[in-house]
Design brief:
The complex is a heterodimer of chains A (92) and B (345). By secondary structure, chain A is an all-alpha fold. Chain A contains three helices and no strands. Helices cover 57% and strands 0% of the residues of chain A. The chains are: A mainly alpha (92), B alpha+beta (345). Chain B: Keywords: Methyltransferase, Transferase.
Amino acid sequence: MQQTVLALVSERKKLVSTIKDLVIENLELDLEPHQVDEDCPLFGVGLALDSIDALQLVLSVEREFDMTVPTDDVTIFRSINTIADFIERSKD
Amino acid sequence: MTMQNANTPLSFETVQEMSAAYDAVRSRIGLTDISDWAKLKVTGYDAREFLDRVLTGNMQQLGENEILHTMALDADGNFLTDIQVLGGFEDFILLTPADRADALAAAIKPDADEEVEVVDLGRDYCLIRVDGPESADLPMAILGGAVAGMRIMAFAEADLGDATVTVGRIGTTGEYGYFFLTDASSRDTLLAAIRAEAPDVVDCTADLHRLLQLETRGFNASADRPGGEHPLEAGLHWMVDFQKPEFVGKDGFFARAKEAPHHMVCIALDETRVVPETKTQILDGDGNDVGYVANAAWSPTLETSICLAYLKRDMAAVGLPVSIAGQSGRVVSAPFFITKSNSAR
């Protein structure tokens, strides 16, 4: 049980770390990964990204994870964690 | 409909009592008088530099008619309060909940050589907020085109009869939420205008906002840090400009952040109406202590109990199965509720 849980936690943290790097690098944010909370809203309150950032983010995720991102689901890019949720769902 | 105190979990019975107001905010529109909030006006040639020095956010990048949600620390880097700052050229309005008024006053003290004037708007101004999907059209309906198409975290001023009203979009309870700030003598005029345009508006209380903010993971300084946890444990990184060379309390703030053992997460319990109390221990699947509850409530939308919790940093990850007072649940992504799609996670 514990090994399974630890593996789950480790895998999730690895995915979150990859997405943080992706967001920071592709949007050229002046931040270190540990300075971004994974539940922080990416748009509006929070990191205050804009619509151009959103487009860039969609393209980056599609390229990095070799997947198509639906543009009509506003919940996917709410935070680092919701992006990770989407990627995990897409793998299933 | 009174809460015992800010750290008491909302009971199911209390949620039942609040259900009409809750339904209004989630499906239509609710109105809350928060005139007891602390309200300071900071003006002067050095006002921007002063606020940049005493707040953790970047005031140099705050444009006119923009709102910045940031925080103030004491000299040792301890959290004082979070603050909504309404940006002007040389004039700023600072808003914070009533229970943080003293903390705000302690933080906003310019030095004698700074050309800054601080005026307590206090009882001279009223502050009314409206929340819910049907609030989206309200500012333009009562104040006209000057406030049309307002972005989130922006504000504008407009006339209402003889009064000047400042209206801002903050959305701390969901996608749509606005506040109206005007002089106290115009309060009745403002309320009449709101009720004329939204006759079905339901009166809410500040207590209800604790639940609404919990569902959207809006920060509630009174409820979300029951043990005085570090703001970065609470995920408030976005209130801090990490690149600023200086701000009051910076060194102590970052030194303590390195030692902070926890990380705040959202937990949804499995279909239970039992609301865990603050500081209730959280166990992992093997019965190991991994953290504790900070702020919990029963969510009418999700029909289960939800909580913000502090987990040991190395275990804080979405998907982690947990047990709280015998109830099973798991860590989920924030928020619990997203207004725009009117759907629950």
